[in-house]
Amino acid sequence: MAAKSEYNEIIITGFGGQGIILSGNILGKAATLFEKKNATLIQSYGPEARGGACAAQVVVSTEAIEYPYIEKPRIIICMSQEGFNINVPKLVEGGQLFTDSGLVKIDPDIIPKDVKTCSIPATEFAEEMGVKMMANIIMLSFAIAVTKLVSYDSLRQTIEISVPKGTEKKNLAGMEKGFQYGLDLKAEGK
After folding, report:
1. What is the enclosing helix (H) or strand (E) of 153?
2. What pLDDT does 51 receive?
3. Angle 69-73-77 (CA atoms, 0-180°, nearest 5)?
4. Per-residue pLDDT tens over the stretch 47-62
5. DSSP labels for 26-87?
6. Distance between CA atoms of residues 62 and 129, nearest Å
7. CA triplet 14, 177, 15: central angle to 5 degrees?
8. Is beta strand 53-61 parallel, antiparallel or unpaired with respect to 7-15?
9. Virtual CA dihedral for 170, 174, 176, 180, nearest 10 degrees?
10. 39-72 burial string, b = 16+ CB within 10 Å, else e?
11. Pick the CATH number of 7-187 from 3.40.920.10, 3.40.50.2000, 2.60.40.420, 3.10.450.50
């Protein structure tokens, strides 16, 4: 029996300095290196370096990817209000929206029909764990636990080889926190 074809367009958005591009890189690596899928990553920045708008556009597919740019995102992960305001109207009906509840105020008027919304206090969790800079890992892990874009093992292995040396242990703890939060949310039926 042939495996089911999979094609997902994902936007990860926030502001410069949050590790948005690293999150996109981790997702793409996990898909290609450990799941034998295809992935592309397009990154964009606002005019400012740190603090300006930033986005990672990731396509993950079991088939060849002919066009790397996002046209109809099925999943959007938002870590800033500006990223929410700019990108959420692009989300397809029935898509999935993930937000950092401490940084993004959800405006239901711009969310397309039948979008499933999930929020996590990723930055707050990271601060409580002593490393605000791993909020991106918590956020990505949360979204992956809910969507199953890649497996837990693929995510873990990719984080180990992708984060700065010496931060692996803390980032893996952040991954566990975000992933478990996502599993708990799914168990509650949300």
Report:
1. helix 152-162
2. 65
3. 110
4. 555 667 899 999 999 9
5. HHHHIIIIIH--EEEEEEEE-SSSSSSEEEEEEEEESS--S--S-SS-SEEEESSHHHHHHH
6. 36
7. 10
8. antiparallel
9. 160
10. bbbeeeeeeeeeeebbbbbbbbbeeeeeeeebee
11. 3.40.920.10
Is the model's pTM score more than 0.90?
Answer: yes
Angstrom distance (rounded) from CA 38 to CA 54: 23
Give the sheet arrangement for strand 7-15, strand by strand: 38-45, 53-61, 7-15, 75-78, 96-100, 116-120
Q: What is the DSSP letter of 163?
A: S
The domain segmentation of the chain, as residue ranges, is 7-187
Q: Which two tokens stand for residue 106?
A: 């959800």
> Which tokens go with 167?
């931060």
